[in-house]
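Handoff note, outgoing to incoming analyst
You'll be picking up this chain. Sequence as last confirmed:
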Amino acid sequence: MRKETKLKIGEFSQLMQVTVKTLRHYEQKGLLQPDEVDEWTGYRYYGLGQMQKLKDIRDLQRLGFSLDEIKELYEDDLHTPSIQQMTAKIEETEALLRQLVTRRNRLLELRNSRKEMDTMEKFSFQSLPEIIVASHREVLPNYAAIGSMCCEKIGPEMLRLGCKCSAPGYCFIVEHNKEYKPVDVDIEYCEQVEEMGQDSSIIQFKRLAAIPKALCMKHVGPYERFYESFMEAFRYIEEQGLKVVGQPRTCYIDGAWNQEDPEKWLSIIQIPVE
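Most recent structure output, in case you need it:
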């Protein structure tokens, strides 16, 4: 009588290139039970039959089936998915593929935008196209309140209204104070969107005309130091014999939403000139 081959869990793990932790997880899930468990030592032994079943489980996982789905197949004595199940998995995979392509394209746009920002000289001139924006104007206690206003009020409202933001994202603020005030700052926040929407008590939609020429300057650091960059920018405008012809915009690239250290916040000051 031929004696069946029995492998300890470590040997089985090594031959099948699967960790012992994974084998124990499969056992706990009721997917792959050892062929034999020594009642005295607790040693687990696996036979050749478990080799084939483990291979089948891993093949199904590679096809996108979850362990719960695989378990159901074995409980129904179906070791391979039905045509309907495979069709559903194909549709699920295609949907995931579309999401991944969208994510990749968005990442490429953001990376290219960041490269442009990183390579931008201290001063540059750009034309700003006509855009549609979702805007919100509010008198804030101070500049530090801009971040919470965006995250807690504007963001949720834009989501509720179904706003579709243009890629790469473009948002900026315009100050309406006629003079500097460290408190009670009259701020208008604008974020570019793809189409006009229905105004709400928080968000108003508007179309902004193109700006043929704008002086653009990087500002690195907290918003309380904007004055340093504005001072340098206006000095440069004067040296170049230019004239300011519109309200400055402050465009945010990195801020409290993705960078804890205010010294690393990146903004772009845009001043219409001629």
